[in-house]
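From the methods appendix. Each design record in this collection lists the tokenized structure first, followed by the designed amino acid sequence. Records were kept in a plain field format so they could be parsed without special tools. The example shown here is representative of the layout used throughout.

RECORD:
FOLD TOKENS (157 positions):
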């Protein structure tokens, strides 16, 4: 994903420090990650894949659909006294497309009512709905991000 100076899509970057070595952290994350073809167990906290060399793409395991789950891109880099864990959180691409489509639809409807129908009250109402929709997306993303990051911290602790 391209990083722009301002992006309406929420994303975060974190750096954690761990005293564990890279191999130990990778084993802990793999043990807590559900792998394709494996029996689902209570120890599995995430769905995801290892993209090799200490990199992971993880999403919290849930039993029901949740559009606002963040995708955690983790990269583990060894240091002399442990490891640095680089975590990038973002919405799934399909959720980003859904949010963009919803915002564009509401904006187009507001512009239609403002320019063609000359009904400014409908236009203002649609712009307020657009703002409420975006605030709902941000709020739910940050809530789910905190839950996912807390689970990841418990796994690597």
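DESIGN:
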């Amino acid at each position: 994903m391209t990083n722009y100076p301002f992006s309406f899509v929420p994303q975060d970057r974190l750096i954690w420090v761990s005293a564990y070595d890279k191999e130990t952290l990778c084993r802990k994350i793999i043990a807590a990650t559900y792998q394709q073809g494996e029996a689902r167990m209570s120890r599995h906290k995430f769905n995801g894949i290892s993209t090799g060399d200490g990199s992971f793409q993880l999403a919290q395991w849930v039993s029901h659909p949740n559009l606002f789950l963040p995708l955690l891109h983790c990269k583990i880099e060894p240091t002399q006294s442990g490891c640095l864990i680089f975590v990038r959180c973002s919405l799934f691409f399909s959720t980003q497309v859904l949010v963009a489509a919803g915002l564009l639809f509401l904006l187009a409807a507001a512009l239609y009512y403002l320019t063609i129908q000359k009904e400014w009250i409908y236009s203002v109402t649609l712009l307020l709905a657009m703002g409420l929709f975006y605030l709902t997306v941000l709020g739910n993303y940050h809530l789910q991000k905190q839950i996912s990051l807390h689970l990841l911290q418990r796994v690597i602790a």
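APPENDIX NOTE: The radius of gyration is 20 Å.
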